[in-house]
Amino acid sequence: MKVYCLLVILICSVACQLEQKTDRSEGKENGLKKGYLERKEMKDSVCLSQTLSWDDYAMTVKTVHLFDSAVDKEPIFIPAIWSQKIEFRKGGKLLQTHWSPALSTERKLSRTKKVILENVIDEVGVLAGRYGHMFFLDGVSPCNSCTEMKLVFSLEGKLLFAAYGSRYEKHFRYGNWEKIIEEYGIGEENFIERMELKGVLEGPRY
């Protein structure tokens, strides 16, 4: 009877340890946190902020929307975006700040002429490698210039890779993607977590 009781206690103890290990593992895999959309209205614009976090690291994209549009009476058709700033933090401490490398273009808006970005970041995410994780950002062109933009940063905010342009013209390129794949151990089995930035393409009144 004593042997049986000891065996039951031992099995329960091992099961508890395995459960604790599993919980820690799942917590590590689910280190992604998606922040809420924050709005800060100003005189003629609104700043939309959204944060994506991985463990203690956080990336915030701040988009300044003008209260205007490239199409009269249609404020959500072509967003008039003045600027986009990318901030990187660890434990709440600011590490790096970058501005979107997208070109500016002068557009006749519904009220007046304004300089706006011709390509805007509308999606962000975390790319997982065997040897490290990275933040990535995707940009599209709401001004029908057919450009695409892809940015990859380390969790600390160091620019690792950037490609911006169209099939006809390359505006900006930095880094070697093949080298990053090898260094971080990125393969087909690695997962990509994506998050759409709310309100960027919908307009400032989202």
Automatic annotation (TrEMBL):
Descriptive protein name: Uncharacterized protein
Top-level division of the source organism's lineage: Bacteria
